[in-house]
Amino acid sequence: MMYYQLLGPEITVAVLGLLVLAGSLLLPSHGKNALGYLTTIGLAAVLLAVILNFSREAIFFAGVYQIDMYANFFRLLFLSAALLIMLMSSRYTGLFGERKSEWFSFMLFATLGMMIMVAAGDLIMVYVGLELMTISFYILTAYLLNDRWSAEAGLKYLLIGAMSSAVLLFGMSLIYACSGSTVFTEIYQALLAGSERPALLAGIVMMMAGLGFKISVVPFHMWTPDIYQGAPTPVTAYLAVASKAAGFAVLVRILLIAFPPTSLDWKLILAVLAALTIIIGNLTALPQTNVKRMLAYSSIAQAGYILVGLVAANTYGLKGVLFYAMTYVFANVAAFAVTAVVEVAEGNAELESFNGLGRRAPMPAAVMTICLLSLAGIPPMAGFAGKLYLFSGAIQGGYLWLAFIGLLMSMISVYYYLHVAKAMYIGISSREDRVLLPVPVRIALWICLLGTILMGVYPGPLSELTELAVQLFSAV
Amino acid sequence: MLIQDVMTFSWLIPVLPFLAFALIGLFLHRWPKWSAACSIAAIGVSFFLSVLIAVEIFGGDPGRAFEMSVRWLEMPGLKVDMGILIDPLTAVMLLVVTTVALLVQIYSLGYMEGDPGRASYFAYQSIFAGSMLGLVMASNFGQIFVFWELVGMCSYLLIGFWFGRPSARDAAIKAFVTNRIGDFGFLLGILFLIIVFGTLNFGELAALIPDYHNLAVLLPIAVLLFFGPVGKSAQFPLHVWLPDAMEGPTPVSALIHAATMVAAGVYLIARAFFIFSQVPQAMLLIALVGGFTALLAATIALVQNDIKRILAYSTLSQLGYMVMAMGVGAMTAGMFHLRTHAFFKGLLFLAAGSVIHALHGEQDIWKMGGLAKKMPITTWTFVIGALALAGIPPLAGFWSKDEILLGAFAGGYTGLYLLGSLVAFMTAFYMFRLIFIAFFGVSKGAEQAHESPPVMTGPLVILAALSIGAGFVGSPWMGNVFGLYISTPGAVHHPVNPTIMAVSSLLALAGIGLAWLIYQKQAVSAEKLRQRWPALYHVFLNKYYVDEFYAWLGKVFVDAGARVLEWVDLKIINGAVNGLAYLTGSSGRTLRYAVNGQVQSYAIWVMVGLVLLLATVLKTVFTVLV
């Protein structure tokens, strides 16, 4: 018995995307605002459906597609992120002019791609979902057509993305050649039977590299700052929180199901990469003067922290991965939302543009400060609880040195995060007028603020949710 | 049925005031009236729920307790729970705190009328009420510590409420810093508990500790835990902050610095009695500290001239009494006194506030006089409060004070019994010295005084009724119901001793009589007494020079230490930090150049990285193969 209704979220998002696309062609220009509402309401409905069916699990097509609590957790994450981005971009989309409505459909397709990625139990399925997401993002990145930086970012993303896709696909084909299957569980069985073959190892490394590009792990991170800075801010936010989480979700599932560390030890390589990512991300974030670029480097560093949980590969570490990814959504969306507000008001996201924001827009400035502190891991914000899980998982897994690097670098990160707070509260601005804050942005900021504080003060419920989600790896 | 639901919803009791705080802070602060209404409504509902809980608890058998908890955080080697524990001890505290908090907030409507900071005042009152209620409902030491710090923060905020006055600011800082010392010890004690026993839950600890006989561990734990009450309940030598805390608005003094927060220390000893009672040395220490504080503060109160300071020293003295009761093992008596004291001392402060309000801020008792005719309700409620405090039967204070004296006497602590009786005599004396000077006698500059509005006198009347009646539950006439419920293994309870009752009553009457002779009848000149024992007078007036001693200590040790550390900081640490910062910054700037905007170079990096990774992995494989 297959519960096809559990595929409802994917189907709904796909249909919604096509509907919005059709609507953007058919509707007169003044009717296109309705498409934004349709997208938002549709996403909210799908989110609700996923929440209600959270604990229902099913395997489709002999393991090719799996709806389990792990997939549901990430579907929850993507849909919440997409919803928050829809809210925060309510005014930013004005910059897109006539093409605003297609923007909604590409957001939906990107979301669909991610949802497919996390539920995929098969390499081909992973690739299909990944490309659906990535190609949507190529378009979204270059969406500010008249902006040189946006166009450049789109092109760069396309070039580097295509290359990394090639590497990923090459790796996958090597794995298929060595194991004779593309389904994770079957690969594992084949691996148990056969001996260690260099080609298989090469395949795994290349696949890790391809996914490492998505989550911007050093040395596959170089594209991140340029693309994050050039892309429209809502797209950057979505790229940073959701695309990255999707990459992690796939990486964790493949590595733990198809190549569990008991059969192949990839931990040390990942540990080194995690350490490098944390160090380089944080150090390069220090001298940045553009907030979007600073957030790009910060997102590299954050990817390093999350990787620590995967390196630990125990319950605490994996819970940490999921927990941190979720807290990261709220903190980062808020940071980008405030950046977008400043960008709309000032025309750029340079650090000087944040001067005096504490007086001109007290609420966004306060939310920004709190969310940046959460990213830095200061209690009682959610980021602290997440880091606590990640690093204690690492210590339990015997990676004390890695946890130590993480802690040390978190300390350094406080500097550049507080730099923004300093500009907002101490910096002097020539303008004293209030910054306009549309209601949807306000709502998004409130949700992010409450999420960041609640998950930090009372991590219990989210922790239980992540515990359920990582149950499928408990055999590892 | 309904009653069961009350237990399940008991968590609302602390949560409602917190919600009120959030609402006022976020939305209502522009409308002081709505802020006040919101705050009072929240504490009103909490009061109602507390009454229902009390009905349930005191309707059942004494051993009844209700506990629920949620797992807050679980880490390797650490479990933190947030829970609610409702037993008779909690139920009593809930009643006391919500009653006094509700009355004080209503009273504040009148007292704070027109103050520009009213909205934040009520916000602080709400967060204080929520924290205090959370403290008494906590089911483990970790949680109690969180709320312990929160009430400390509220106390700081409210002492410094009129932060325009330098003295208020200084007092707030003094309270905070002094409490830090106590709280640090308390925290260490808690850490020791979790290291030794692996749990902080009261119930689990109470089951573990009787079988734990290693006194070398238990004694430091008990002493460290006692640091908490020493700070919060202002026991010697950390008592110095409480008199200065009178800089806050008077209703705050009534609620926080007389009735509830300062009693939290006593409550903590009662709650953790299962630990203290296992360590006789710690019990003796507690008894001695309490007794000494009681005497010290009473002697100082004899010669003070500020109405609030007299009451503050009286509070110190009474807190010492309670702590002493705990130390001699009379836990029931200590809690009983806490309860009655909350009512009559709350009343005394509120009545004093009514006087101060009427006299536009005048606090010197020598500038009052003859208030009885102008402010009859305030005067007579004050007198009732003073009679209760002095321990005149059958008012509330008589029963509880008598229990403490009985506990000390029957427990074999004759010295402490004598000390307690002496303090009882002094208490009656200084209270009626205050009354005869301020409320009776000749009016000195108080012609303009008028009775306060009903919103202020109402709470006074209710508290006066409680000061009269609240003691009966512990009286032999009612079979000592209080002692039946509030007791714990290790606590002792003694049969009534009429001699002690008679002696303490007579001493109190004697104290009143002496005050009457000196200050009303003026048969004995106060001036002559002063000249006869000038040294004693100055020592009392200057509070034993403890503040001066601490200032000297601070100057000698802290300042000198600071100068040494300053040198270390500037020369050594700063150099290291600056060097490190330079290193970090410059490496960041260097790394930045790797990202040069050229997409080709990004691609090369990806390839180089991939090749390096492949080389590393395959090298190990090939070495294995070869």
Q: Care to describe what's here?
A:
Chain A is mostly helical and 476 residues long. Chain A has a domain at 266-476. Chain A has helices spanning 8-26, 33-52, 69-88, 100-119, 123-141, 148-179, 184-193, 198-214, 223-230, 233-258, 267-285, 291-312, 315-346, 357-360, 362-376, 382-396, 400-425, 439-457, 460-469; strands spanning 58-60, 65-67. In chain A, strands 1-2 form a two-stranded antiparallel ribbon. In chain A, a hairpin with a 4-residue loop joins strand 1 (58-60) and strand 2 (65-67). In chain A, helix 5 runs antiparallel to helix 6, helix 12 runs antiparallel to helix 13 (315-346) and helix 15 (362-376) runs parallel beside helix 18 (439-457). Chain A is globular. The model of chain A has no long low-confidence stretch (mean pLDDT 89). In chain B, strand 1 (66-75) and strand 2 form a beta hairpin. With 626 residues, chain B is mainly alpha-helical. In chain B, helix 12 packs parallel to helix 15 and helix 14 packs parallel to helix 20. A two-stranded antiparallel sheet of chain B has the order 1-2. Classes of the chains: A mainly alpha (476), B mainly alpha (626).
